[in-house]
Amino acid sequence: MGLSGVQRITKFVKYLPDYGWNPIVLTTNKAPYYAFDDTLLEELLSKNIKIYRTDEDVTNLIKKGEKPKIKYPNKFIKNFQSKIIQTFVQPDSRIFWKKYAINKAAQIFEENKIDLIFATAPPFTNFLIASELSDKYDVPFVVDYRDLWVDNPYYFYPTIFHKNYAIHLETNVLKKCSKAIVISRDMKNALISRYRFLKYTDISIIPHGFDQEDFDKSIPEHKNENKLIISHSGIFSADLTPKYFIKAINLLFNEKPQLAQKIELRFYGIMQRQYQKLIKKSKYASSFVLYDYLEHRQLVNHLVSSDVLWLMFPRPIVTPSRFYEYLGARKPMLVCSYEGEITKIAEATGAAIITKPNDVKAIALAIFEFYNKWKSNNLPKPNEAIIERYERKYLTQILSKELAYSLKST
Question: What is the DSSP secondary-structure string of 19-64?
Answer without folding.
Answer: GT---EEEE-----BS---HHHHHHHHTTT-EEEE---GGGGGS-T
